[in-house]
Specification:
Number of helices: 10
Bound molecules: cytidine-5'-monophosphate
Mean pLDDT: 95
Radius of gyration: 19 Å
Oligomer: single chain
Largest sheet: 8 strands, mixed
Number of strands: 12
Strand content: 25-35%
Order of helices and strands: EEEHEHHHEEEHHHEHHEEHEE
Helix content: 25-40%
Low-confidence stretches: none
Length: 308
């Protein structure tokens, strides 16, 4: 039983990047079949759930995140997570949910999915619901294609529409420079542009074997050669400046630059933490005001000591 003084629960959930994003031809259900390799990186949102008589949501954001771009209506994955978890347990869930966002919104980093996953875990703990991992993963898949991975974290193969997630061997510590854009890109729009540019896409997406092999070497140079994103071409076609940014980062010494997921965030793989800091410094001097350094792989949505 939960007493009236049950302590708040804080859950931390990480951004993801897609090391491999193979996209197949549009399915009849409106989704694309994917073979993807996700990696959770150390750029995180924290969600704290306090006991309360009703359900409410408060957002605060670091200066590179536009909190006003987060939908607060029924599209919000936190509120949808609360509704679905409540429905599973036959009750309406309440709580004062406070989110501190550091993951850019609509950035191709699954920030909304991270928040949805965090809400599932935080409300499950706050109300002591004991939801099984199996049920949490099913609820997550119903919320969005990337939400199961946000629960699992680490490095994982995603299939289906991305919602079927299997951890993979990853012996490396990988250092990334992350460059968000001021204005987000709509994921459905990027997929629609993929359909326009690739009317010949095969039903089965390109496999990730080369990338999975590189992960097992732990060598950044090997990983750099095998990074792959089928949404990069449509994202750059919609935002040509992303192509220029990738060229710039590679000219400054990145092993490889890549659009993250559907963009517009661009990530650069580096040799080491020092290399990542040097590259970040060079990009800042070149005029990019927000340049972050993150390493992977990190954990999926998990409870941390409360600080709100
Ligand atoms: O699953 P999620 O709600 O995050 O997907 C958002 C949109 O992205 C979908 O409505 C669809 O337009 C597109 N999408 C897709 N194929 C996928 C995942 C997402 O076409 N595998």
């Amino acid at each position: 039983m939960i007493g009236p003084t049950a302590p708040p629960v804080t859950v931390r959930a990480a951004a993801k990047i897609n090391l491999h994003l193979g996209v197949g031809a549009l399915r009849e259900d409106g989704y694309h079949p994917l073979t993807t390799v996700y990696q959770a990186v150390g750029l995180c949102d924290d969600l704290t759930a306090h006991l309360a008589d009703d359900l409410s949501l408060e957002l605060s954001a670091t200066d590179w995140v536009s909190a006003e771009a987060v939908p607060l209506d029924d599209d919000n994955l936190i509120l949808r997570a609360a509704a679905r978890l409540g429905a599973l347990h036959g009750r309406e869930l309440t709580g004062r949910l406070v989110v501190e966002k550091a993951i850019p919104v609509a950035g191709g980093l699954a920030g909304g999915s991270a928040d949805g996953a965090a809400a599932l875990v935080a409300l499950d703990r706050l109300h002591d619901l004991g939801t099984s991992d199996h049920d949490l993963l099913l609820l997550a898949a119903g919320l969005g294609s990337d939400v199961p991975f946000s629960l699992v974290g680490g490095t994982a193969l995603g299939t289906g529409r991305g919602e079927l997630v299997d951890p993979v061997a990853d012996v490396g510590t990988w250092w990334w420079v992350v460059v968000p854009s001021r204005v987000g890109l709509s994921t459905p729009e990027v997929y629609r542009h993929f359909d326009r540019l690739r009317p010949d896409a095969a039903p089965v997406p390109p496999d990730a074997e080369a990338l999975l092999g590189a992960l097992r070497t732990g060598q950044p140079v090997s990983l750099a050669r095998t990074l792959h994103n089928d949404l990069q071409e449509p994202a750059i076609d919609l935002r040509p400046e992303l192509g220029a940014l990738i060229e710039r980062g590679e000219a400054e010494g990145a092993l490889r630059g890549l659009v993250s997921g559907s963009g517009p965030t661009v990530v650069f793989l580096c040799e080491s933490a020092d290399h990542a800091r040097d590259l970040a410094g060079a990009l800042i001097r070149g005029g990019h005001d927000v340049v972050l350094v993150a390493n992977g792989a990190v954990a999926g949505a998990h409870v941390v000591p409360s600080h709100v």
